[in-house]
Amino acid sequence: MPIFEVNGRKYEVDEDGFLQDPSIWNEDVAKDFAKSEGIDELTDEHWKVIHYLRNYYLQYGIAPMIRKLCKETGFKLNKIYELFPSGPAKGACKLAGLPKPTGCV
Amino acid sequence: MSDEKTKRQKKNFVKLSDMAREDGQPLLHLENEDLMRLPPPLDDPAKDRPWRPIPDSAREKYECILDDTVAVNVPKPKTKEEERELVKKFLAGLDKLFLKEDNWTFLQPLVLSMEYCVKCQTCSEACHIYEASGYSELYRPTYRSEIMRRLYFKYVKHGGFLAAFEHGDIKLNWALVARLIELSYRCNLCRRCAQTCPIGVDNGLIAHELRKLFSQEMGIAAKEIHDNGSMLQLKVGSSTGMNAEVVKDNIEFIDEEISEKTGIEVHTPWDVQGADVLLIHNAGEILAWPENPGAFALILQQAGISWTMSSELAGYDSVNYGLWYDDAQFARVALKHAEAARKLKVKRIVLGECGHAHKALSVIADRILLGEDNIPRESAMTLLHEIVMSGKLKLDPSRNDFPVTLHDPCNLVRLMGVVNPQREILHKICPQFREMHPHGVDNYCCGGGSGFAIMSGNNFEDWRFHVSGRKKLEQILNAFSDCVDDPNVNKYVCAPCSNCKGQFRDIIAYYGLWEKYRIGYGGLVELIVNAMEDVKPGFIDWEWH
Q: In 3D, which of B180, B207, B2, B250 has the Cα closest to residue B109?
């Protein structure tokens, strides 16, 4: 497995850079991954998205519909892209320690 | 042949024997200058996006010796002994491909494709990957096939010296097998080459059979379509990871959204015994393009169709990735689909906007769905055509008064001949509909076919957008050449297939085509609902396309 090394910590990630073991996630992981996604500092708005994704994932075992994410957080899609330049799946989900979405999504 | 083409062909030439080279180096490196030129506004190769290199972490662990990318991530064997074992397994699998007990699906066309190619190269000119790559020999459709053919004559038919003389010799080692694994994932399986072949030799099938050998005999397949694809689908019910509870919850959300947006109360029926129609979507639609299943529900409801969805395992996800790489996985999923329909005693299955699901369940599954499993299967295209032409929905084409072009999903159109229903709908409801050229059964693949649209590991996307998706991108730019520069005109690429939509979404984002040129994409049912008089205007949400 590729290793993602940042701030003196090492994470096992998959070929797309997603955390290999979602269960080891904590807020430091999000902070460590933020830089690689071009995010300097995580604001309250970032955390709102990350925590929603994280909680949904813990309950259902997958990522939520992006529409649901927008509705629940009150952010429009372009706002999500502003917050997470790689987008909701490749950016926000990665920071929230979710596995890469699967299937034709 | 132009001088330019000859020059590029020479630069990127590889011999068949290079496949067995043991220098651990890739056989091909492409620069943007080498690629087929795109039309304006993307006509300057210097401004094309740079390719990311394969990450060092992948180079260390995986066989990355074919070209500029890596799709399958085959671990490097640690010892020569391990290499020999893998080659032995490969040979055992090769033999099985040519036995009727082991290859119940495609033996005959495979043998014919081995025996009867006259090497006229008509197929090469038809291949979008070969053309887009600047005619790189490695991607010539017959390059892969010729390797396979020589292996067949030498190791399956044991042709000996005479076969080597007649058909050409070939050296078999692990390097060749490792490269062949990757090369079997450089073909979209669109089968445009097979269509053009004067005697029906099928290079797409050869690539498919190689993938099958690697998966069934060696346990090697792209992770996105096996581990995270068909395996996940058989375990939880959908390759998206949605179980029955999640999918119902999501559909409820979609019903609410659609009701609010259209002003018409929509209710998706679940598990209705004896319904006329069991509608099976590609479950990716539900997560990524929810307006598509929402629009379907609205149309079927307003047209008075007796229909249902199924919450059985795989009954709500029509994908069958086995079609691309593994007959056993294919059969397991197809049987699940039939089981869902049988349990509900529906009159027929209707497949939503997903090309490969059409081919999988309608055509290939015909070999295994017998007796009460042999439930009639229909394309959504013909059902929608019937509804739109019946006059049951009041439609106002002026609501779709923007440029629309139609992408033909290969599985639906070239391989099944469902050509006209979707076009006749568009002619009726989209005043600015224009065809791509060529189109219909002569279409080009979106570039995401055979699973590529969901494969993005390492730097595979760079290859997918620069090479396999390039011809389709050319077609799209040409279809909108009269208005591409006008940022006030929204343009719609109608793609009635989830896999194709995934490719379009990604390539549009990669080249910034929405921000710069207002090129968007979407399915067919969205355009129908957008034209419905009873629906609040503005159903198509361009921000999401």
A: B207
**What is the pTM assigned to this prediction?**
0.96
B499 in the same domain as B451: yes
Nearest CA in chain B to A89: B288
First and final C-alpha spacing in chain B: 40
Residue range of the domain that includes B149: 3-30+62-220
Ordered by start, the domain boundaries in chain A are 3-95
Q: Which of B220, B250, B266 is the last residue of a domain?
A: B220
pLDDT of B459-488, one tens digit each?
A: 999 999 999 999 999 999 999 999 999 999
B398–A contact, CB cutoff 8 A = no
CA dihedral B118, B471, B437, B204 (to 10 degrees): 40
Q: Which residue has the tokens 């017959």?
A: B142
Q: What is the pLDDT of residues B296-346, one digit of tens each?
A: 999 999 999 999 999 999 999 999 999 999 999 999 999 999 999 999 999
Q: Residue A104 and residue B454: Cβ atoms within 8 Å? A: yes
Which residues of chain B are within 8 Å of residue A17 when distances are taken between CB atoms? none
Strand, coil or helix: B351: strand
Q: Are residues B243 and B155 in the same domain?
A: no
- List b or e across A18-46, with b for residues whose CB sees 16 or more CB atoms inside 10 angstroms: bbeebeebeeebbbbbbeebebeebeeeb
- Rounded to an integer, the average pLDDT of B490-510 is 97
Q: Is residue B458 within 8 angstroms of chain A, CB to CB?
A: yes
Region A3-95: CATH code:
1.10.10.370
